[in-house]
Amino acid sequence: DAGVIQSPRHEVTEMGQEVTLRCKPISGHDYLFWYRQTMMRGLELLIYFNNNVPIDDSGMPEDRFSAKMPNASFSTLKIQPSEPRDSAVYFCASSLVPWRGGYTFGSGTRLTVV
Amino acid sequence: RKEVEQDPGPFNVPEGATVAFNCTYSNSASQSFFWYRQDCRKEPKLLMSVYSSGNEDGRFTAQLNRASQYISLLIRDSKLSDSATYLCNSGTYKYIFGTGTRLKVLA
Question: With an 8 Å Cβ cutoff, are B34 and A102 in contact?
Answer without folding.
Answer: yes
